[in-house]
Structure formats: C-alpha cells, structure tokens
UniProtKB/TrEMBL annotation:
InterPro entries: At3g28540-like_C (IPR058017), Mitochondrial_chaperone_BCS1 (IPR050747)
Protein name (Swiss-Prot/TrEMBL): AAA+ ATPase At3g28540-like C-terminal domain-containing protein
Biased amino acid composition, Basic and acidic residues: 75-88
Start and end residues of each stretch annotated as Disordered: 75-117
Source organism (scientific name): Oryza brachyantha
Segments forming domain AAA+ ATPase At3g28540-like C-terminal: 4-75
Length: 117
C-alpha cells in the first residue's frame, strides 16, 4: 500500500476543499513526511460532512492535522510495544541459553568430581 505524500494531498485538498494554498499546508507537509496515512484516509478527513453542508477548509485541515498526529502517536506506541515484546522474547531466549550452558558446565564438572572419587 502506498502512503499519501504532500503532492497527492494538494490534489485532494483542491478537489475536496477548493484550496491550492493554506497556512496549515506547511504543518501538514511535515506530518505527512513523518506519518504513514493512506490517500483514502486523508481524503476522508477532507470530505464535507454532507452534500448540503460544505465544510470550511480551516476546520477540515485542522481535523486532518489532528488525525495525522493521532496516527503518528499510535504508530509510535505500536513500535514501542513491538520493540518491548521483541526485547522480552530475546531476553527469554538468552536466559534459556545461559541456563542450558550452566547446566552443561555443572553436569560436566559433576562428572569430573565423580571420576576423581
């Protein structure tokens, strides 16, 4: 799946809101570079609520910024959880390997002790 980048966003903003430039575009550009959001999700945040009631560009763009921030935060949390899970499973594997080595050395030194008696 491809993610929405700024040039695609500008096309969506023009189609849905009729704007080609806006003061919030700079922040949206930055967030789109840092966030993985599909063009469909971006468009969903730009669509008017109903055909009779046209949404204001300021409100739509501010809503998109909030959605991008939430997506970015959710991705950071998911990444941290995945890293913690990976680290935990890695530590368990190390502990098991360490225990096995200790068991081997104990059994071999025990064998030596029995052999000298």
């Amino acid at each position: 799946m491809s993610y929405c980048r700024f040039e695609a966003f500008k096309v969506l903003a023009k189609n849905y809101l009729g704007v080609e430039e806006h003061p919030l575009f700079g922040e949206i550009r930055r967030l789109l570079e840092e966030t993985e959001m599909s063009p469909a999700d971006v468009a969903e945040n730009l669509m008017p609520m109903s055909k009779r009631k046209k949404r204001e560009p300021d409100a739509c763009l501010a809503g998109l910024i909030e959605a991008l921030k939430k997506t970015k935060e959710d991705a950071a949390v998911a990444k941290a959880e995945a890293e913690a899970k990976e680290e935990a499973s890695g530590n368990n594997g190390d502990e098991a390997a360490g225990k096995t080595e200790m068991d081997k050395s104990s059994s071999s030194s025990g064998s030596k002790a029995n052999a000298t008696i």
